[in-house]
Design goal:
The chain is of the alpha+beta class and 159 residues long. The protein has one domain (4-158): Gcn5-related N-acetyltransferase (GNAT) (Aminopeptidase, 3-Layer(aba) Sandwich), CATH 3.40.630.30. It is built from five helices and seven strands. The two termini are 24 Å apart. Bound molecules: coenzyme A.
């Protein structure tokens, strides 16, 4: 089944919430929080963005991040468990990094649960490196956060 990546719009929020509900590692923001960041981008030019992976009008995954003072933060990336291992996560991260490049970001940073080896491998593919540890950062269950980052652009991986 083929899929495409496009920008997240307000009309996607219900489906994004459904995906997030299924995935414990995804942020559990409410409808208003998702909506307000999409709208704030339109209204105020705040540099925040979401991408969705879509197949025949069904959402398969999403990525969300922001840009502050030249530093991009990937806030979340998630793919439905039934759709993993097909390159969708890679494509969602790629789209976010392209956006970061277009907006002249100089760094990309993120936090990830120390036990999330799948996501850490995905980030390594895009030259994100471990830069620190935040002890007991996550709750339920309590766990350290690995801080990862890279200088941008990583043009070699984005061509
Ligand atoms: C992390 C996640 C987004 C990856 O999505 P995906 O569509 O399966 O990723 P891809 O198919 O593009 O995989 C890209 C690479 O990532 C690595 N990878 C991804 N998931 C992996 C896993 N579970 N185990 C090992 N490696 C994994 C592999 O190196 C893979 O490359 P390969 O296929 O050449 O081996 C997905 O597993 C997910 O939604 N996890 C739950 C949410 C989450 O943990 N998000 C990150 C923190 S917010």
């Amino acid at each position: 089944m083929s899929w495409t990546i496009r920008r997240m719009i307000v009309g996607d929020v219900d489906l994004v919430l459904k995906i997030a509900e299924e995935i414990p590692e995804a942020p559990h923001w409410n409808h208003k929080a998702y909506e307000s960041f999409i709208e704030s981008e339109i209204d105020t030019g705040l540099q925040r963005v979401g991408f969705v992976a879509e197949s025949q009008e069904r959402l398969l995954g999403f990525s969300i991040g922001k840009l502050v003072a030249g530093v991009c933060e990937l806030e979340s990336i998630a793919v439905l468990s039934s759709e993993r291992g097909r390159g969708i996560g890679r494509a969602l991260l790629h789209a976010f990094m392209q956006w970061a490049n277009i907006h002249q970001a100089v760094r990309l940073e993120l936090e990830v649960r120390a036990s999330n080896s799948g996501a850490i491998r995905l980030y390594g593919f895009f030259e994100l490196r471990r830069e620190g540890l935040r002890k007991n950062y996550y709750s339920s269950p309590k766990e350290d956060a690995v801080l990862m980052g890279t200088a941008l652009p990583v043009s070699g991986k984005l061509t």
